[in-house]
From TrEMBL:
Name listed for the protein in its UniProt record: Dynein-related subfamily AAA family protein
One of the record's GO molecular function terms: ATP binding
InterPro entries hit by this protein: AAA+_ATPase, ATPase_dyneun-rel_AAA, Methyl-DNA_Rec/Restrict_Enz, P-loop_NTPase
Pfam family, one: AAA_5
Source organism (scientific name): Hymenobacter chitinivorans DSM 11115
Annotated transmembrane regions: none
SUPFAM superfamilies (alphabetical): P-loop containing nucleoside triphosphate hydrolases
Amino acid sequence: MLTKPVSVLNFPDLKEEFKKLWIEYSDKLFVADAAIYDLPRRGELNYPTQIGICRINPYNMHALVTDIQQRYNEFEQMQHLQDTIDLLKAKGQIVLQGPPGTGKTRMAEQIADRLAAKPAHRKLIQFHPAYAYEDFVRGIVADTTSAGSLRYQAENKVLAELAEQAAADSGNDYVLIIDEINRANLPAVLGELIYALENRGKEVDSVYGLGADKNRVLRLPSNLYIIGTMNTADRSVGHMDYAIRRRFAFVTVLPDANVVPEGPARRLFEQVQQLFETHMSPEFDMHDVQPGHSYFLVKDDSGLTLRQKLEYELRPLLHEYLRDGILLPTAKQQVNSLGA
């Protein structure tokens, strides 16, 4: 029986339980005795209550509410992250999609860190229009023999290399992050691996054979997870065709006002949000183009100030949106008058 609240740090056996529930195990939490009652559907509530566990100074109420809200937001983010990890484990490959600045790549790296314990078990690459099958899966490279003559031979690239490592290490998970996955010609880049994505462990034949026996076999093991990121605002690149889209699960990552601190940054975020609510072309979806929260986050000790982010990152993006017809001409004056 506890006579007064005691720091949770006095109960180390609770640490693992807190971790499972995504609760921070720190000196900010206390343990106290509590009574649980079954409340009647009717009648008066007449039960003894515990008084004096905590006295809140009314002048600190705002700080307390802010801290509780922040912890709740962090819990929601962790829960969303865990839900996405569960989806990735079930599907094998996912795409994090959303407008610029919503933290898609950061979220992909957080997932990779949780799944793949060692840095060697996770890789990040970025697709671009010139990216080819020979850069991603397997291709021909020029080499010289000991006699100095030139020879050509097939060589595994990033995906096939990581797949081989994962297949030889079934006790650990491996993660490949493909940033800007839709910037490449995916049917050409993936080739026969479109089939292998949903048939993990089954053999497919590559167009290139390895070694003296010209072994063409490729397989994607079940412990290799693939995370793509996709900018939904970029219409200059092709979208995934239906055959490839069916192999991936899509998670939408949207701007989140809750992670933007109160004050000038939150006010600027709300101004920009209102801009899209009132001046966006009906041809576009706000969820595809509204700049994300990272444009409004400022580090206290380094990096760009909020004013610099507005002048050199956010406002140029909004002017680009005006030129592309995402924002209507009526938004121009409001874009120019935004202030941090």
